[in-house]
């Protein structure tokens, strides 16, 4: 499973939405359930799914699938 597939599953599980709703171009604004509380829960899910530690400063930057994938890539996860 590649990084996008894992990310799609993590977002879908966290937001309780079908994985098909998460595309490689999805942003926080595209999904009504991706509110501020869900965003924090998603950051925790990312840490667990990808075995990494996110800094609080990263949270505000990781508001789209492309931004998250780029962050993961910088940490060697593709």
Distance between the termini: 10 Å
Topology pattern, helix = H, strand = E? HHHH
- Rg of Cα set: 11 Å
Give the CA-based shape: globular
Helical stretch tally: 4
The count of strands amounts to 0
* Uncertain stretches: none
What structural category characterises the helix and strand content?
Answer: mainly alpha
Relative strand content: under 5%
Biggest sheet details:
none
The overall pLDDT, averaged over residues, is 97
| Residues in helices, as a percent range | 40-55%
Structure keywords:
78 residues, mainly alpha
How does this model look, in words?
This protein is mainly α. It contains four helices and no strands. The radius of gyration is 11 Å and the shape is globular. The chain starts with a helix and ends with a helix. The mean pLDDT is 97.
A few lines on this structure:
The protein is an all-alpha fold and 78 residues long. It has helices at 3-15, 36-50, 56-59, 65-74.
Write the layout of secondary structure elements.
Blueprint: H1 3-15, H2 36-50, H3 56-59, H4 65-74
Helix pairs in contact: 1-2, 1-4
